[in-house]
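Human:
Focus on the backbone:
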Amino acid sequence: MVFGPCGGVRSGGRCELAERPCPFVDAPLVRWDGPEPGAVGPDGLLGLMAERPVVVTDLRVRPLDPTSVTEVASVLGRASDAVLIGDHQSRHDLPPLLLARMAADAGARPWVTLSCRDRNGVVLASELEGLALVGAAGVHCVTGDGRGPGARTNATQVFDLDSLRLVALARSVGLVPSVAATPAAPPLALRPARVVEKQRAGAALCFVNHAGGPAAVARFVAAAREAGATMPFVPCVPVFTDEGSAAVLAAFPGVSVDGRLVDRVLQASDPVEAGVAAAVEQALAMAAIDGVAGVDLSGAATSGPEHESATIMAEVGRRLLDHWDASR
């Protein structure tokens, strides 16, 4: 990694991969020194943001199961503006290019995560060219979580590139790149300025990881805009309806979810309805923040099967879209 720190820095400034300090935490901000990016067209998701807030939904599917991809994408495609196709450090997935094509065929607009963990620079360039050819809505450029102990120990972790250099590569082939910001991960004071460096590398959109609620998101977005960020922000909204799905969110490094919100949902007489209503409430509050142009419905939604998760996510998305359409 050249342009650190990543979003996985743990409390006290520890690296997420080992019991050692992150070398970027106490160092000056690393400035982007690459080429200036070209212009990005106002069509697609960015164009829609000019009309109303957008709804992006995490795509949760069974591993290596084309039927699951089609089922889930068809449900989410009717209740969201894009699906965010993830990258997982602990399991095998179908190739990003194939997932994008399948999601699009099922009626969803794919926004594809590419990480630098398992792909060298040549493979990443090839994936980006392919995503541009199939018309992916955009590509989410991340350095990538390191694998946990015991996860796929027969394969090396590559990290030829990091998120900023991947952003520049994506922009050079005509894709719309997004990046992640993790306000709750150390070093907190450096995070807003790091968003600006990602923008200078070519990022056109910033997904804000779970920061603890709308107030924390508002503080972070304001700080990033004061530092010079002008691209739109899309904060993650936690969607959970049981203990298992709440625990999934809490397990990610650098993520903060409001414990009072968790208690409110899990202690409700109808946790599913409470979880949907809480997600809608959080999303509306975040979308009202200056600089925010949409929300990402994020999480497992339920510890049940993937089609149940999609149904819950779609209900949140429908309520949001109905609200914003009625307000226009």
Residues 64 and 94 are 5 Å apart (CA to CA). The longest strand covers residues 54-59.
